[in-house]
Amino acid sequence: MSEEKGVTRRSLLMGIGIAFNAIVGVAIAVPVIGYLLSPVKKKSAYNQWISLGKLDQFPEGQTRLADFVNPFKRAQDGETANTPCWVRRVSTDQFQVFAINCAHLGCPVRWFPQSELFMCPCHGGVYYADGARASGPPERGLFTYEYKVEKGELHINAGLMPTLADQSKLVVIDGKGKSPCLG
Ligand code: FES
Question: Where are the transmembrane segments (predicted)?
């Protein structure tokens, strides 16, 4: 009888010990797994493909101004949520989509078709038609957005602001394969 009680008490304590260890294990594992997966979660949270319009809005060999609404717009953003960018159509399915901001201190650059240059009004930064730095204080070329062509429209990944940290060159044409983008 007392042996039976002993077995029951032992198995009860064993069960409590296992349950306690399981709780502690889960409490440690959840934040560690969350930390390890955070880059993946962050990337997918900021993936926001937005259409800039039909392809025929962007004639081949030309650079046109386009704009889109910031996908993370808040009520207080008002007009500032409208974000411009420069679209250069290199060939039928090759584009470059430049951030409007100068790579020096962020002033909006303007495209001058006569000279085929982007110029920055703030400190005289100049860029070639392909976004490469030509002269002035910027230390690099213009930042570019990831783009893809889908159902006859040009889309950019507007959730990921182009920065030095994320200058991937992903180009997807109608969901088929990948090819390197210019610049
Ligand atoms: S912000 Fe463009 S050159 Fe300084």
Answer: 12-37
